């Protein structure tokens, strides 16, 4: 007995579940050098919490207030690369989280440096903090950080650094900060919470 | 990027799965009303959320959606005889009404009550607009009927089509909140499609290929605002609402009808894409309606007698590399619908999201996945009713507006994104 063989089109064959086994499967290295900057105190609390998580390349900062032309950023302990050990210290993502669990994060890149203890990391000028980054995530809860937001936005705009703004809380208190970020931020997540920031950073593989 | 187990959670919608239970909180499209055109017409096979059923319209015009298989020997009731206010299995004559209740077992004695103990699973099936809607959840928590504007305007103002999409519902749905692909994949259509072309907004779309996004929660899901440069001091905003779990509207263009989609899982590797066009305040013109029937805009030209697109994976989507080279289409595939479907299906039946490299512009997708996951878990663990169940959440519109640069789209468009009967859509 013979069975007629159905000739699948190239697209039908390629899209089948069986063909997905042959996709090239290599580890995906963290792709982005992220800076996460909290513009105000409540945002800083979120940034500190996030910094405890196991990131590969993300560095976390808070901003001076007021933020003048010589504005400086304070590095938070934790984060990845030169600021924290991936997988170190932090609380694990909630079990229901969609993020990579500890241990699933890609290994630290060569040249990784151990974390500095809290409060011993010196303040750094904005340009020094952002040099080498390719994405900046700004956290804001209120308008007090509008000057910082504008300065970061301008800097990133000049340097071609992608900027994202995460407005924590209901956003009503951060109208000015949002307006300052709007011309520069490729994306603004409004009425967000800590988990939004966490999900964004995780999805970006920072 | 999503962890594999979360990807499975979001993509599996069978009975008992968290996302399956989430979908079972909502009224969802089951089939087009045209599929059951008259009383006692042939039954139709329907597979939704990995459950196989048949739909039929009985002698009194009542709609039924019941288990596909006869309780006796498991024969498919698709072969059934729709007659005398019930669907009769042709194998041994067992007969069921629209509620799935067995009403006749011919082999039993005339006065036997046996059939009263035979009940097939059934779900309500209700015609609203051009669709038949079903609710597959617990009857005790059945919500009020859906109130999306497109199904409540007069019949002459609305048109709905459907097509079979050969991939998981989530990767099809995610295209609906991904506004940045329009400038590339659909660029040809903006210039030539009769349901798109001619709008001032198209110029903004084409002149600014790097939109900025703002993503905000709504009661029923999200608003995703995509912003492009317009004239000096202004931005062109395109605002896409998502109502959970799977309803989106495309921002309008000029006075063209407004379109959108509702994605419904068939099983974990296939979904139905329901695509609609409607105008809030006027009848569709004959030209517009014919364009929709011909597969323009968000619709597809289907193989006659089926809901499978004529351009499909079995014929490489009729890709035309010469048209691509001439600039008529960006990908070589014709039509907005199949441009989307071809790429979404090319990812495979269920794309492995642990391999993604997302960018900030994907924040709408990131947020939507998070909301779906949280809602599914809150329902599973605490019984929390998810957003989008309340019909009030359905009364949203998409919008396209030009605003001064300092203005927030959320503040400026509160009225524009709400349904106001008799008021046209906000469009550019």
From TrEMBL, chain A:
Region of interest: Disordered: 1-20, 71-120
Comp. bias intervals (Low complexity): 9-19, 91-120
Gly residues bias spans: 77-90
The name this protein goes by in its record: 3-methyl-2-oxobutanoate hydroxymethyltransferase
From TrEMBL, chain B:
Rieske domain ranges (all copies): 27-134
Key words of the record: 2Fe-2S, Iron, Iron-sulfur, Metal-binding, Oxidoreductase
GO terms for MF: 2 iron, 2 sulfur cluster binding; metal ion binding; monooxygenase activity; oxidoreductase activity, acting on paired donors, with incorporation or reduction of molecular oxygen
Gene3D superfamilies membership: Naphthalene 1,2-dioxygenase Alpha Subunit, Chain A, domain 1 (3.90.380.10), Rieske [2Fe-2S] iron-sulphur domain (2.102.10.10)
Keyword Lyase applies: no
A Pfam family this chain is assigned to: LigXa_C
Name of the protein described by the UniProt record: Ring-hydroxylating oxygenase subunit alpha
Annotated organism of origin: Streptomyces brasiliensis
């Amino acid at each position: 007995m013979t069975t007629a063989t159905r000739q699948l089109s190239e697209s039908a064959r390629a899209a089948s579940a069986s063909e997905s086994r042959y996709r090239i499967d290599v580890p995906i290295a963290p792709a982005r050098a992220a800076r996460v900057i909290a513009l105000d105190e409540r945002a800083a609390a979120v940034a500190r919490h996030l910094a405890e998580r196991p990131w590969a390349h993300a560095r976390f900062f808070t901003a001076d207030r007021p933020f003048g032309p010589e504005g400086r950023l304070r590095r938070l302990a934790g984060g990845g690369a030169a600021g924290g050990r991936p997988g170190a210290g932090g609380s694990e993502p909630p079990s229901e989280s969609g993020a990579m669990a500890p241990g699933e994060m890609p290994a630290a890149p060569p040249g990784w440096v151990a974390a500095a203890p809290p409060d011993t990391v010196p303040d750094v000028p904005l340009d020094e903090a952002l040099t080498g980054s390719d994405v900046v995530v700004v956290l804001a809860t209120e308008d007090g950080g509008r000057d910082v937001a504008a300065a970061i936005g301008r800097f990133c705009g000049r340097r071609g650094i992608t900027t994202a703004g995460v407005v924590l809380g209901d956003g009503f208190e951060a109208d000015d900060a949002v307006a300052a970020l709007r011309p520069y931020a490729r994306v603004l997540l409004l009425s967000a919470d800590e988990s939004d920031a966490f999900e964004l950073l995780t999805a970006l593989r920072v | 990027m999503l962890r594999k187990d979360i990807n499975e959670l979001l993509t599996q919608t069978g009975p008992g799965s968290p996302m399956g239970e989430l979908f079972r909180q909502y009224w969802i499209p089951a089939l087009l009303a045209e599929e059951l055109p008259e009383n006692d017409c042939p039954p139709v096979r329907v597979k939704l959320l990995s459950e196989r059923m048949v739909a039929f319209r009985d002698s009194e015009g009542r709609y039924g959606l019941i288990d596909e298989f006869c309780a006796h020997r498991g024969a498919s009731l698709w072969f059934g005889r729709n007659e005398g206010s019930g669907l009769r299995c042709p194998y041994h004559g067992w007969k069921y009404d629209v509620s799935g209740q067995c009403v006749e077992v011919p082999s039993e004695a005339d006065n036997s009550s046996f059939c009263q103990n035979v009940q097939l699973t059934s779900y309500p099936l209700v015609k609203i607009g051009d669709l038949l809607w079903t609710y597959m959840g617990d009857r005790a928590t059945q919500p009020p009927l859906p109130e999306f504007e497109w199904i409540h305007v007069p019949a002459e103002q609305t048109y709905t089509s459907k097509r079979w999409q050969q991939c998981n519902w989530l990767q099809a749905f995610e295209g609906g909140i991904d506004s940045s692909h329009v400038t590339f994949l659909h660029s040809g259509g903006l210039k030539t499609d009769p349901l798109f072309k001619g709008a001032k907004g198209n110029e903004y779309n084409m002149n600014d290929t790097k939109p900025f996004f703002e993503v905000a929660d709504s009661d029923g899901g999200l608003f995703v605002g995509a912003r492009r440069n317009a004239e000096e001091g202004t931005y062109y905003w395109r605002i896409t609402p998502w109502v959970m779990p799977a309803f989106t509207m495309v921002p309008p263009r000029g006075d063209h009808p407004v379109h959108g989609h509702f994605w419904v899982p068939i099983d974990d590797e296939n979904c139905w894409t329901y695509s609609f066009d409607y105008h809030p305040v006027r009848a569709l013109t004959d030209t517009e309606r014919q364009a929709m029937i011909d597969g323009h805009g968000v619709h597809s030209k289907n193989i006659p007698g089926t809901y499978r697109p004529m351009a499909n994976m079995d014929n490489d989507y009729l890709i035309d590399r010469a048209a691509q080279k001439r600039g008529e289409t960006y990908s070589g595939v014709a039509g907005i619908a199949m441009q989307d479907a071809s790429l979404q299906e090319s990812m495979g039946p269920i794309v492995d999201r642990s391999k993604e490299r997302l960018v900030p512009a994907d924040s709408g997708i990131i947020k939507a996945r998070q909301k779906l996951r949280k809602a599914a878990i809150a329902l599973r663990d605490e019984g929390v009713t998810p957003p989008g169940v309340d019909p009030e959440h359905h009364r949203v519109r998409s919008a396209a507006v030009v605003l001064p640069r300092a203005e927030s789209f959320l503040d400026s468009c509160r009225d524009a994104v709400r349904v106001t009967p008799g008021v046209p859509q906000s469009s550019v």
